[in-house]
Design a protein that fits this description.
Layout lengths: L2 H13 L4 H17 L4 H12 L4 H15 L9
Helix pairs in contact: 1-2, 1-3, 2-4, 3-4
């Protein structure tokens, strides 16, 4: 998935307005699928970092949690 496509998908998930857990799981799933398709972690992190600047505080917290999964700052079973 191209970086713009990923960004658009992440934005759509954040706009859907599910619960914290629903949004977190949806974002994690999209990132996991991208990694399995061969995407590199660094461009994904860069996309998420840029997205943080344009979202609400609660959405930013969710993005930060998913970013933690990417860099391994989480329980081993949650690492992406």
């Amino acid at each position: 998935m191209a970086e713009d496509d990923l960004r658009d998908k992440l934005i759509q998930i954040l706009k859907d307005g599910g619960t914290h857990e629903q949004t977190l799981c949806a974002l994690r799933t999209v990132i996991e699928q991208n990694l399995k398709a061969g995407a590199k972690r660094e461009p994904i992190l860069t996309t998420m970092e840029e997205l943080r600047k344009s979202v609400l505080d609660e959405q930013e917290d969710i993005l930060l949690e998913v970013m933690d999964f990417l860099v391994g700052w989480c329980s081993p079973h949650m690492k992406l």
